[in-house]
Design a protein that fits this description.
The protein is of the alpha/beta class and 254 residues long. It has a single domain, classed as Alpha-Beta Barrel (TIM Barrel). 44% of the residues lie in helices and 16% in strands. The radius of gyration is 17 Å and the shape is globular. Bound molecules: phosphoenolpyruvate (PEP). The site of phosphoenolpyruvate has 14 residues, from strand 8. Phosphoenolpyruvate binds next to strand 8.
Length: 254
């Protein structure tokens, strides 16, 4: 059975105290209310990481994620954060290739694949985001675009290393818009991504790799999306900032 995963991406939201408060609400609720085997990852802003790792220390359901890292090991890169730094405060997962990073920071698949290597080098797991824009979908190029993203970022990895990747299919037109992909659209793309992984890495790995969906997931649509056979959970932005909503979404994956 593939691991079900629900990951929270807080993006650039919360301040120190409000973030810790939110975390202190979410973590016990998951412990008390989520009985199914769903792995929960929370990726808060960097300022929370150290305190969050102490708060989650030893938790068997909730794990710490980061939203980004740089692709160099260390050195004169003002304002950046290295994979080694993240690992040193207990981060276990790093989101790489988010469409907001691609859009606002000009990250391309070459940069993203270097970041993935850094994450893996430091024994963390990558949450690799891919997905097409609305224009690309309307031009019926969505599969082609996603295939290229998957190939460039992941096909250079060894079989051993690709198993440390969680793939997040996040159609750009669905992120933060309130317009989620339909379950049919999500299932179609997830099955396609799994077929690409199968062709390159074999059936066993394709069956085991978790492919999660992101883009306007809410407590209302989570169940129908997560019930699709190839959708193994979700990456949640806006709704992860409200403890009760996020916990409902986690429950929908169980
Ligand atoms: C995201 O940022 O990865 C995301 C899916 O955001 P939202 O849930 O707000 O669409």
């Amino acid at each position: 059975m593939r691991q079900k995963i629900v990951a929270a991406n807080w993006k650039m939201n919360t301040h120190y105290m409000s973030g810790i408060k939110l975390l202190s609400e979410i973590v016990p609720m998951i412990g008390d209310e989520v009985t199914a085997d769903v792995k929960v990852i929370i990726a808060p802003p960097f300022i929370h990481l150290y305190s969050a790792s102490q708060l989650m220390n030893g938790n068997r359901k909730v794990f710490l994620g980061a939203q980004n890292c740089f692709y160099e090991e260390k050195g004169p890169y003002t304002g950046e954060i290295s994979a080694a730094m993240l690992a040193s405060v207990g981060v276990k997962y790093v989101i790489v290739g988010h469409s907001e990073r691609r859009k606002f920071f000009n990250e391309d698949d070459a940069i993203i694949s270097k970041k993935i290597l850094q994450v893996l080098e430091h024994n963390m797991q990558g949450i690799y985001c891919c997905g097409e824009t609305l224009e690309q979908r309307e031009a019926r190029k969505h599969k082609e675009i996603v295939a290229k993203q998957i190939e460039t970022a992941l096909f250079g990895l060894s079989k051993e290393r690709v198993q440390k990747i969680i793939i997040a299919y996040e159609p750009v037109w669905a992120i933060g818009t309130g317009v989620n992909a339909t379950p049919e659209q999500a299932q179609e793309m997830h099955a396609y991504i799994r077929s690409l992984i199968e062709k390159k890495f074999g059936e066993n790995i394709s069956k085991e790799i978790s492919i999660i969906y992101g883009g306007s997931v809410t407590p209302n649509n989570a169940k129908s999306l997560f019930s699709c056979p190839d959708v193994d959970g979700g990456l949640v932005g806006g709704a992860s900032l409200i403890a009760r909503d996020f916990v409902s979404i986690v429950k929908a994956a169980g």
